[in-house]
Amino acid sequence: MSRLFRFPAPALWPGLALAAALAAFAIFLSRLPFSTQAGLSALTYAIVTGLVIGNSVYPRLARHTAPGVLFAKGNLLRFGVALYGFRLTFQQVASVGIAGVLTDNTVLCSTFLLAVWLGRKAFGLDRDTSMLIGAGSSICGAAAVLATEPVLKPADSKVAVAVATVVVFGTLAMFLYPALWTLLQHVAPGFWNETTFGVYTGATIHEVAQVVAAGRAIGPQAADAAVVSKMIRVMMLAPFLLVLSMWLARQTGNRTADSTRPRSRIQVPFFAVAFIVCVAINSTGLIPPAVVQAIVWIDDVALACAMAALGLTTHTSAIRSAGPRPLALAAILAALAILLSRLPFSTQAGLSALTYAIVIGLVIGLGVYVTGQNRAPAPVAAVVAEEPEIAEVGEALVKFYFESGKAELPAGAEG
Asked: pTM score, two decimals?
């Protein structure tokens, strides 16, 4: 744990000072009335200012500031993710009940799996970009992308691309949902109350700041419900990182099984464990609210510094080279379940976006599970054979579902 929170050496201070200056400017901008109304967070401003400075004057400063910038992008990021746990309590999780938690968990898995599958097969994206976009779309936007980065260890440009996609479509949703709520009150009054729509808002908009802005624009009850719903998704961040780390270790082990190199150990992301510890501490109620607010402010600064450092080390040419495919993937993830829930049949049958997300995830997961057992038709088996990573993700999700006692495996699916 000490390696995550090691006190910076003197050589790191110039880079940390640069990242902190950009973070302070980003936090200042995020507190302006326009930013509050528009739901523009400090993280968004931090990466934009970091990109501007990083692609202009930073190359001339990198000789003296690079060590500190790298420290902010690594250790300070992990520190910020751990402190993120002080935004949530177990009491908030319990308030939505086990059904709400399981629903959020299923939606997270479904969205992430769909992102990996569509990213690789439909858009030809690499694994890391697909997973980063999936993490941001299914959990909590830019913060989830940043938290996933130490586990995947992708190129900085891929992280920047993923952050950009979730910010763009999260911002669009933030403006769309209040307008949609107003339209529903005229077209179908009483179909959804303010609290229900707030839960829907928190479950489908990416950024916490965007959820707060959209909820407040709808009403106070919607704002409260949206924040609680969003915090449940945030709670899934730590288990998601742990499972992803174990899966990546398994992938590495499979690649080295036939070689003389030792199998890779599971690298436990200690900052994810620290996140859960912080949630537990915050749940005791022993820490005064003023102290919790101070910790959250420190966390805002740490994450803003990490985001600014990310922008400083990212070249815009690398982002442009990614093309429109990442944006297209994020657009599909943001729109598919929402659009399906607006179909006339869905409205009459009471099928929500969450229901469709669960069905989509289970169908894909079951398909790749059966294919992974070489029981599928030859054309489908050939497709999955080209993408063994997707098959293993689907197999893990569906195998967990069936072996939990909720259902039985279909005939012929057992190896």
From this structure: 0.65
